[in-house]
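Chain A, query sequence.
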Amino acid sequence: MIKALLCSRHFMPLFMTQFLGALNDNIFKNALVIFVLFALAPHNAPLYATAAAGIFILPFVLFSALAGFFSDTIDKAAIMRAVKAAEIAIMLLAAAAFYLQSAYFLLFVLFLMGTHSAFFGPAKYSILPQHLPPEMLVAGNGLLSLGTFVAILLGAIIGTLGIAGENGVETIAFICLAVAVAGSWCSFYIPAAPPAPSNIGLSLHPLKDTGRMLSLTLSGKEIRRCAIAISWFWFLGVTYLTQFPNLAVQVFHADESVVTLFLVMFTLGVAAGSLLCGKLLHDRVSTHLASYAALVLALFGLDFCAAAKNYTPSGVVPANIIAFIAQGFLPLRLLFDLFILSTAGGVFYVPLYARVQRLIPLERCARVMAGIGFLNAVFMALSSLVGLVLLALGFSSLGVIFVSVFMTLGVALYCRPPGKHA
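Chain A, predicted structure.
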């Protein structure tokens, strides 16, 4: 199935376009954060890091309704080509912002990149049921998820190392522009995906359009269950990713290389789960594994917390990867827990997307997908807010993860299948 998809003209151009777009997002985002923190405003590091995270997801809140409307009323392939062409212009602005060394200009460009992703997402997800047969939906979503998480990892590495090297600004500007051009080129090979006949309209009131979009997304019981479960995956993922640096410093007395190791294990696990879910479901569009996957996610998350609590750092100097792993069984247990729980995360959320695509009529599929994107952004922002509140109340970083993981047990109950064929 995977080989057939990767050789398919109805999927491979979309996969490459999506991969390159996610790669560029993360190269630029990580390069921006490092550049601003260490070159432009080191004294305001927490402020700019927090602002960057919020600015990137803000467009999903502001423009999801508009993005869903366009993808339901215009050829989705044409929308993706327009978005990728805009990415080239955005990267030219990024080069100018780096050259001028303006933090505010760079944050504005980051907002534009978030807007680019907000418009690309509904078209990407709603084109799959139009181009793929039902038996390929789980595998197709799994490959897109795989590409996204590999792009996140590669983007973090390329962005961080590229901006820190000699002529870092020029290097990052060139790489981002080249990736944008490559993504635009790939988008022209995506086959046409004309909209289904419909009589939907767009009002001049963004709040009203957003409410209408959310009403479509949350109207059916099963669609609502899938949407909230998907958003919870992103809530939990953001919790882990934002607490990794704090855990490395506060609990493991380790350096940034161990943070990178945790990020690699988490990313590889989600990527593995994204591919594994198709095998486990025998390519059927079903959510019957979601509850079990959420339970595994929670149980191994609890074991991760228990192992971290029992960890005793050795040495005065912060441990690098080699020193961290050399400390015995507990580091290996932590990495194993992290890989298994993230694998369960991939098995958990990928089939949920396929189920929504299977259930929603084509004429409103993009608006529902845009609604899920909106909820994802809200849950990610909520994750950061909950983390800040818990830390302010005296919880440790490990305590923040424990609370989120414990809540996942409730999500496992919420995601239980309503019937035999769900």
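The chain is about 80% helix and 0% strand. The chain has two domains: 7-194, 213-422.
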